[in-house]
């Protein structure tokens, strides 16, 4: 039986469990702590920054993959040196870990992006602001996610605290119509598959809602997004799932916002809405197994994140009011603002499907 | 978090795991042995016939349910005496455990069945044969499944070995057009839901293939099957999933063949083909949670059992050849004739869907 080791015990690892069970894959999780979201498959609790811990965990695994992108390069390279199949590998993950390197690399691949610069001083930031209408977005090169490590600035000194730590990324504030995401999977032997382009709705810098497929996306946009994601997956040598977060600019151009080299919030709809879910596909891809069909099982899927917690009483209410909506709970203790679960409705018509998903999600409002 | 304890570590317990993960339910399995199909959730290994073992296992569970129907009545009643929610309860399970009692009880509910009799002697069997064209089916009252404990007879002495052990059930050999199955779920507070009527194709007394919905079933047949299953579920006080195996007689009447009070092979298609799978529904039902929508996600589903084993090489072949077919492996060691997994195709048209399912299943032929 194939064995996949997952570093990190969050909800992404948790949602790989059902896929592993179906495919007869043994899944082992190295969790950060007891009681993690993926505790059912946690065979070990330990520090993913410690090479010895991770090497011991990897023994007997056919492939190592990730719940997050924070495993240090030294640890990843130590695994590879021992002959462990690390997927995605350190050379690819580097671009998910460091946004400055990512921008440079995407530039060399010819991928469209917001204007950006590497800045090391307030003067450089001031110059960028002057060239871009007086406002911009500053991002720390490393460690940011879900709105953290990202800041809107309109003054040359607005990033002084971060600049004291080193170089940061500055990007133009893109005037976009909406945000989209293109999910693809790639296996080591090269096969790639794309899911339909989706629209993502962010609130407070965090994904709130995903509509699949993206409404009113023209064939040219759909093709362009898919080609772009394939270019990135191939160019960066990604194995497993790659999510490319995109801005659809006012003029219709697609600009790459962020990359994630793992199953991604924008693909949660695929559990209920796709022939092959992103979690099943990720496991297949990291094992270099043949990839699955990504066709939708219904014309429309709407996924809505639930923040805070999913008390049992609210789950029962949601199931009672919306018996056709799938509720996914991540088994986490309640905490304000925490991604605690999601709901997905599938259907034939966007308005009705979105209504049902929102009605189910509303059962979790405090 | 709700906790469901499952007695038995076979594939039915295994397939409850993904449903539990999605719903945020903690699932604990009392397995017969190490390395069971449901080992990922096995919190204990022990003998389900031992009341002390089962009582200890049940501590902390909100409901106890089953992978099989073999837990002795004394053990079930000991659980109930301790206030454990046993679902289905002993009064219902009795009819799944003893085919003679089942026939008597169904008779009192007015449900159509093959002609049957309780026989204790070869003379009685001879008399039944004489009245029913010289051939009949003899079944042991207890312990039969998948063709075991079932025998075609044409001589009064053909069941002497079983009669030496006690009374057996004899049934007329029904001339049927085909076999069907009606799956329903019922929760303690009374809510019931039915899946579409399915056709089951048996080979050697074992389910080989399931087509959902049953092709060419008229509205009257569909309604009759649903009503019949609701009558049985309510009449017997079943909680959780109930499968009613049916003969469609030459004259179109539906006759009850067997009952199963748990997720059932005839409902495996629902994992991929239904809005709510039988495994999710079973967990919801045994916790007395609101039941889910049972509408199909595609016009046709075809499920085919895989026997023997699912070597990784064959899984990869099946996934490569049929990228839209779902492969389900039960994590069992290979053994001739053993139910080792299944494949499900969903689609819009029966011929194509069945072709794809069969092509995937054929990848596992030795």
Concise description?
Chain A is an alpha+beta fold and 366 residues long. In chain A, 32% of the residues lie in helices and 28% in strands.
Question: Explain this structure to me?
Answer:
- 2 copies of one chain form a homodimer.
- The first copy, chain A, is of the alpha+beta class and 366 residues long.
- Chain A has 3 domains: 3-86, Rossmann fold; 115-172, ATP-grasp fold, A domain (Dna Ligase, domain 1, 2-Layer Sandwich), CATH 3.30.1490; 176-362, D-amino Acid Aminotransferase, Chain A, domain 1.
- The first copy, chain A, contains 12 helices and 17 strands.
- Chain A has helices at 11-23, 51-58, 73-81, 90-97, 99-108, 122-131, 160-163, 219-236, 270-273, 278-286, 312-321, 350-362, and strands spanning 3-7, 26-31, 42-45, 63-66, 116-119, 136-140, 150-153, 168-172, 176-186, 192-194, 198-203, 206-212, 240-249, 254-260, 300-307, 326-329, 339-347.
- In chain A, the strands form 3 sheets. In chain A, strands 9, 10, 11, 12, 13, 14, 15, 16 and 17 form a 9-stranded antiparallel beta sheet that branches.
- In chain A, strand 13 (240-249) and strand 14 (254-260) form a beta hairpin.
- The longest helix of chain A has 18 residues, at 219-236.
- Chain A is globular, with a radius of gyration of 20 Å.
- The N and C termini of chain A lie far apart (44 Å).
- The A-B interface holds A 1-2, 14-15, 17-18, 21-24, 26-27, 40-41, 271, 275-276, 284, 289-293, 295, 297-298, 310, 312, 315-316, 319-320, 323-324, 326-331, 341, 346 and B 1-2, 14-15, 17-18, 21-24, 26-27, 40-41, 271, 275-276, 284, 289-293, 295, 297-298, 310, 312, 315-316, 319-320, 323-324, 326-331, 341, 346.
